[in-house]
Design brief:
alpha+beta, 5-stranded mixed β-sheet, 3-stranded antiparallel β-sheet
Length: about 240
Amino acid sequence: MTKCIRRRLSLLILLLPAGYAPVILPLCAQTSPPLSHLIVLSRKQASQLALEQCQPEYPVLARVNYIQGHVRAELEVAKDGKVAQAHVVTGNPILAAATLKALRKWIYRPLKTASGPAAFLTTVEVKFSLRIHKNDTLPSQAESDLSRQVRPPVVIGRPSNPSPAALVHMRLLVNDEGRVIDSEPSPRAFGNPAAVRKTLQEWAFRPARWGTLPVPWYLEVDIPISPTALPRVVTAPTGR
């Protein structure tokens, strides 16, 4: 059962330093400033606002396959202190899915500014660590061993879009029900994130499988993006 704890209890959650902004649009010589209006909080500032943090459950499938490690994610917290968006930057897909489920339940005190409550952005790192007895030996290639056994998700339906404004390469996190629960780049990297989310919702997927069990897994695809969803383009300086 997932445990929700108050901020003063010990957690294996570490906030990363202020200024960390990993969202990048993977188009050559382009950037987008969609997060520039958000306040980025430091570790200390964000921890002082934390009210309730639900610890992720350790997925059974990850345990039996000796999968452990860190999941790095960014959080966008709304004016009311609730997590508006959670986005995985790095991490095993099974651990990432469990992390997202927990992070979206986190609650903060509203961030007060001179102009009233404000949304903010911060980054967290969740550690999954197996309790191993002294004489036990972990497999040296647990991640790659599991990857070889998993059949990745499959696209089974998508709407036709004969004239998209662009094709954007995205890494999707498809859960064990065949739903997209996260993507890289995040929809927030685009000018109209709602349009990108709508596009993703119109696709249908068969979830990845480990044997007969459906599991969360990553899938890389090219997504057609409408003109309204594209970010404002800024050409990078020559030679950079």
